[in-house]
Amino acid sequence: MSEKVIMDPLGIGRALSRISHEIIERNKGTEGLVLVGIRTCGIHLARRISEKIKEIEKSEVPVGILDITLYRDDLLTKKGHPAVRKTDIPFDLVGTVVVLVDDVLYTGRTIRAAMDELMDFGRPAMIQLAVLIDRGHRELPIRADYVGKGVPTSKTAVIKVLLSEEGTEDRVILRED
Amino acid sequence: MELKRKDLLDIKGLDQEEIQLILDTAESFKEVTGREIKKVPTLRGKTVVNLFFEPSTRTRTSFEIAAKRLSADVINFSVSGSSVSKGETLLDTARNIEAMRADFIIIRHPASGAPHILARNLRSSVINAGDGLHEHPTQALLDMFTIRERKGKIEGLTVAIIGDIAHSRVARSNIYGLTRMGARVRVAGPPALIPAEVETLGVSVFYDMEEALSGADVIMVLRIQLERQGKNYFPTLREFARLYCLTQERAGHAKGDAMIMHPGPVNRGIEISPEVADGLSSVILEQVTNGVAVRMAVLYLLSGSGEI
Amino acid sequence: MNLLIKNGRIVDPVNHVDQVADLLIADGKVRQIAQEIPVTPDAEAIDATGQWVVPGLIDVHTHLREPGFEYKETIRTGTMAAAAGGFTTICCMPNTKPVNDSQAVTEFILRKAATEGMVNVLPVGAITKGCQGEEITEMGDLREAGCIAVSDDGRPVMNSAVMRRAMEYASMFHLPVISHCEDTNLAEEGVMNEGRVSTELGLRGIPNASEDVMAARDIELAALTNAHLHIAHVSTQGSVELIRRAKEEGIRVTAETCPHYLVLTDEAVTGYNTNTKIKPPLRTLKDVEAVRKGLREGVIDVIATDHAPHAQVEKEMEFDSAPFGITGLETAVAIALQLVDEGVLTVNEMVLKMSGKPAKLLNIDRGHLSVGAVADITVIDPRATWVVDPPQLKSRGKNTPFEGWKMKGRVTHTIVGGKVVYKG
Ligand SMILES: [Zn+2]
Ligand SMILES: [Zn+2]
To answer: Is C157 among the domain residues?
Structure first.
């Protein structure tokens, strides 16, 4: 088993800065823009991106929280249910451009669930996807609009995103068997 | 943490962590019930059967809404009168329903222990929606949820349960749940309506209502079944009301911020006065709202038990 | 064919016999008890080494259900169960359909028992017509037809004046009056003992007082009428104390309890097992201890089964709807042996309370192994272990609260009138 750090605090910071710039550039500003983080790491990342955008554009981009548990497609096939925690979308989604934020993009199933859930909150004008890591192995036709770092991995590898909000140092670790 | 059981038959068998889990989960579901589209796909393809041997529009509807908001299919069976009179036993009825591939059977029955018969014999998850004088676990869970939501905690609170304790499954479930969560529970009513040796469940017994209310954080008023009259549990409803009706004046003996609960339906002017039932301290309608969230949580958690 | 029981421990408390010996049965009678009786070609030998040879057990309280409830039990299946349980004589209660309140019913039962029965059947007639508690039965006729006692078991006579007249009348025919002591108004719709467990389970309770007040009433009436009162299935501390006092005062009262009141408490109802639903209900530990003490001290004379079979579909009901009653003929010996093991009774006391004492209270010449006595004999292997498996019971009633219990002690031979009717 090997473990290596593939992103350090500086790397994560740079990646999020770049993503923030790209979001502003692609959307020509922040008009109608909202960020929605997917529990748990996605929330922290969305908040950081919102902060960075504020530094750059001097405008506030609201952040919502999505808990996709109830929309998972493996709930009924798995024994034991994950805990359900609150979703919090404190703004009207209709007509907005939603940037979904998650830590790792893998099979795409989480994003499918997140989009279904978002749609139930209202009809956004557009949904975009920002991830810190894209590790490949998609099982659905989903791709990210903003990627911090593409990391080719084997299917058995494990990627862990650690963030300071959870009481650890910012780091992304790749563990291979 | 998950709920490691196939059925929800009673509160007595739940430990503190399980109750906590259900209440925490219910909090998330309460958010779902506040959405524009109040439906999530979680239990799509699952079948929930409401098997009611006693009329109860409230509880049945609450379970029905909960199941539908989880995208389950709901079928209602109301069996009026006893199935025995039609020559079919409870077990026959239940086996028939299971043969239709029900994933959940929610049962309300006038006989204590009826859900246990189903649970022992069927693979479906069985949820007790009130059995005889025994328990009504989801009612107690929604009551605890409402208390926790209002007071921020359950531990250390003084809860006074007033009225017909002996014939109340709501009282029993709340006694088990509240004492397990660290509340001090008092019961009050005339001696014939206090069940034998109820102190052994960890509650204190009062006959005087004002004493029971003194310093209480929560007042839980039980519905008095009008049929109890004429059986000498108490002489008349008039005198019962004179001694045990929760009036504004009596409620004043409790703490200033005491919350007032009632499982419904309310007999206004008998166990509770209209001003109190509709007053600011009353959370009776919140209880109804929370009932749906709590029942969604129970359905969700039981469906993850891996047994179905 | 003669029978020779070799090398068993012969326990015959009535005759103060407790020794290892051989017992020879000839012509349906006890012929000889001695060491080393030689085996002859005209005698079948039973090796009873390590086993107990005791007077055939007598149950003063059995429900055979026939006529009227043959789906629960018949005279045939009930007596098969009795034989398997070591009972050579049983007294069947009158709450059949029709009620045994007339010569015709008594004769029917005796005729059936003679042709299909495996053991001796002694009918108990009703106290009142139809067990309705209103008009007393023709006890003279019943006695003549073969009833050995009267009882309205299951439906106690609530009217004290009726009970008084019944006792007066029964005493004229030397018929014991067997009373199921229960104030049905106090018992109300109760389905189990009233107390902590009934509160926890949300089941309606039956207070001890419902038994005690009727025991007190019947004892007073026995004192008034000088009738022989036999109190059935004693379950409470209160009635044990009432009987103790009555006996001290010289009132003609005897009493029975049942195996289940000696080893089970109301905790057994937890889980709503309808095979624990009986009347009187299973009580608390305090009562069990008092009943055990009463049994040991002789306040309670007899262990009876109150064998009350029901069909499985009836017991598969909700607890409230299921009928009262449990089967008991086939588990009684093992439970009694448990009491011997626990030091509550000696072997001699146990045998006496299941044979000699019941015979005495019924006024029948049974319950001893005197030379010349009818050869009703039970052979018990006190060390045999077995597990109670309801489908294997001979009784039609599989409603035992002892399902799955590991038992020690089993009947190996039941001999009625010199014939082996059961072989384990
Ligand atoms: Zn009886
Ligand atoms: Zn009986």
So the answer is: yes
